[in-house]
What we know:
The chain has 22 helices and 2 strands. The chain has helices spanning about 1-20, 20-25, 40-60, 70-75, 105-110, 125-130, 140-150, 155-165, 170-180, 185-195, 200-230, 240-250, 255-270, 275-285, 290-300, 310-325, 330-345, 360-375, 380-400, 410-420, 425-450, 460-470, and strands spanning about 90-95, 95-100. β1 (about 90-95) and β2 form a beta hairpin. The protein binds nitromethyldethia coenzyme A and D-malate. Nitromethyldethia coenzyme A binds near residues 80, 307, 355 and 409.
Amino acid sequence: MAFFRSVSALSRLRSRVGQQPSLANSVRWLQIQTSTATDLCSELKELIPEYQERVKKLRKEHANVELGKITVDMVLGGMRGMTALVWLGSAVDPDEGIRFRGMTIPDCQKKLPGAFPGGEPLPEGILWLLLTGKIPNKEQVDSLSQELRSRAKIPDYAFKAIDALPVSAHPMTQFTTGVMALQVESEFQKAYEGGIPKARYWEPTYEDTLNLIARLPGIAAYIYRRKYKDGKIIPLDDSLDYGANYAHMLGFDNPEMLEFMRLYISIHSDHEGGNVSSHTAHLVASPLSDPYLAFAAALNGLAGPLHGLANQEVLRWIRSIVAEFGTPNISTEQLSEYIHKTLNNGQVIPGYGHGVLRKTDPRYTCQREFALKHLPNDPYFQLVSKIKEVVPPILTKLGKVKNPWPNVDAHSGVLLNYYGLTEENYYTVLFGVSRAVGVGPQLIWDRALGMPLERPKSVTLEKLEQLCAK
Ligand code: NMX
Ligand code: MLT
């Protein structure tokens, strides 16, 4: 009875909302069901037949529906705006930014369990939401934390593989090497060699994905301790959640830093399917490469300075400003002069611009809110705030930059730096650990939905010219 009462209240609310578009977005999350399953795998198993039916119906009844035109500009312009992928976990609106299964970041902060009441969303909750589209409760999230801890043991040869590289190797090179070493234990590879039928591919993919997510913080922390500290491993703490444990294994136990890590991992997890790392993972997994192979490839894309490495570049650039003027407390004129100097050198302003977004990234905004709450007087935070005022009009004046506003990477470095994680070359590893939480669920769905090998058509330059001449 209570269920029917809430359904009819919800439909009344929806019909009112339909007349008030401004309210429509803010209540969309109400339509997301809360989860009732005992564990993540059972929840997923129940959902798979329904999703398979939906895909079957689309292919059978709507195979020829056109989703847009493909223009020469798109083909030569990095496929911007070309709808070419299905991605279940999230979608990015150019003006509003990310929604995780329909939920904005503030929705997630309100509705997903935190480590304490009112705390930032736990990454385990985001993982549950991205995989199932349902909101987990605290008990479910705690049991997923426990499950991830129980899967976290790293084989010794993975550390040895990393040790084979010089300490000077970039942390992302060490990270990909560690992930490739974990691949030795791939359940998918074993199952495929054992002749598993296609209908069950998702099962070992699920195992690999959860094992991979569980083990990444241990690998990532090892690299940090090896490269920047005494090399001693800090073991996992059985009382801590995923984000807090990662911070702890790095060597940080300040409760504010633990809370920032929960937020950091949650907001960096997913950004629909077309970004370089997510798209790479999906592409590489499409010929049935297992999740380790696919994710290692994704990390190599993330390591590019126009993608995930931008977080490293942002702090490096901020430090170069401070070095130039001898202080972070600089005037607007000095900052403007430095921005022009960077642009005149033929460099980009790191942390600004985006392939899809056309407004300030909400992932920037929520980090700014975190900083306003915890470190409002930090001089680097104040410099970042000033940069946000000065950069956009300058980029706009260039006349070619489609989005002059800050993205996720414009902010993360100063928060990490404040809490003592000062080594900016490590920052993309943090992004990488987080991205697995978003990419992993899609890799499982790719196999559950029987997604085929990805193979778009290319044209030669001559053919393109011929097509244009017609
Ligand atoms: N500073 C200077 N120039 C820029 C910037 C920027 N921040 N952003 C775009 N432009 C230039 C861009 O280089 C291009 O110039 P040209 O025609 O001479 O090659 C022109 O403006 C048009 O580019 P857009 O269409 O606006 O951007 P596009 O979709 O091609 O690229 C990025 C998107 C994110 C690669 C680009 O904005 C950029 O290089 N930003 C700086 C690096 C960065 O912050 N990357 C992180 C993205 C988020 N992430 O985490 O992955
Ligand atoms: C991401 O989180 O992947 C970046 O914002 C880049 C993108 O979405 O293209």
